[in-house]
Amino acid sequence: MIERKNMGRVSPILLALLSFGFFFATYNLLTMIIHNKASNLGSWESNGLDSSGDLKPKYHVALTATDAPYSQWQCRIMYYWYKKTKDMPGSDMGKFTRILHSGAPDKLMKEIPSFVVDPLPEGLDRGYVVLNRPWAFVQWLEKATIEEEYILMAEPDHLFVKPIPNLAYGSQPAGYPFFYIKPTEHEKIIRKFYPEESGPVTDIDPIGNSPVIIRRSMLEDIAPTWVNISLRMKDDPETDKTFGWVLEMYAYAVASALHGVRHILRKDFMLQPPWDLEVGKSFIIHYTYGCDYNLKGELTYGKIGEWRFDKRSFLSAPPPRNLSLPPPGVPETVVRLVKMVNEATANIPGWDTLTSGSGQE
């Protein structure tokens, strides 16, 4: 009987080891589930708390722009929707800055919070004006007083569909995965700027710099590298030809990886009409593509439609108020886009009068 009791008794040390092992396995499983939901599925929703259980910090909304009418009218519409959504429930939006890289104040200084920085030296961008974006962020981060701990890098052609929480998870920034940013398919080119000793090409996220919510201190480290990589890529004929208009986006992705930064990939961060058909739970409408349809509501992309909305139709002056709505059958995203543009233009004072670029009033 004594032998049986001893055989059936479990050692306290063994119990402690088993308990620790169970806790460790459970912790790892929960961590993996949370990470997968946040990174891959885009289904994680902010509850207003950060990883420590405290209230999530605010982020500063920042975008780069020029003083051209084409850029100005987009900024005015974007700022309208920022103001409308900033204080709604679920928002972690802080202050707003239009980083104006034309080197001089313009007519929107009183209407939109703006910070003037210098463009790249003449000729350095080789006509690719987007190269001014990383250089503008470097100057702004060095010279401006920024209260928020985090920054949302946005663009003038972004519309806030609803308030955006701070999607960054602790020190890990959040970004939108672009289907056309494919580092692994361009490994030969990528290796010119991201050597093998830096790690596998799969460590480079399929993103651009916008939209991205990132801790300010991290962006301060990345931004100078982002400038250097952008200029080096532009100077390399093979890279310039291959990456084209998304070269600066690849430069940000590579620069982030060189600093060991990985992003939470949020597919719900943004939608892009006409390709995305439903608004769903997305936060931003990005209207970079032209939307062309016939009167049957059928997409005629690449061919000017009987009905169309394309921001490039308004290079020298803003679009008129009260644009016609799309014909029946056009996707919800396009309808929402036009309605949001119409609401903004109907409520922005002096919408039709601001047609010239420079000169502070």
UniProtKB/TrEMBL annotation:
One of its GO terms (cellular component) is membrane. InterPro entries: HPAT-like (IPR056508), HPAT/SRGT1-like (IPR044845). Residues 59-352 form the Hydroxyproline O-arabinosyltransferase-like domain. GO terms for molecular function: glycosyltransferase activity. Keywords: Glycosyltransferase, Membrane, Transferase, Transmembrane, Transmembrane helix. It is a single-pass membrane protein. The keyword Membrane applies. Pfam families: HPAT. PANTHER family: HYDROXYPROLINE O-ARABINOSYLTRANSFERASE RDN1, PEPTIDYL SERINE ALPHA-GALACTOSYLTRANSFERASE. This is Hydroxyproline O-arabinosyltransferase-like domain-containing protein. It comes from Quercus lobata (Valley oak). The lineage of its organism: Eukaryota, Viridiplantae, Streptophyta, Embryophyta, Tracheophyta.
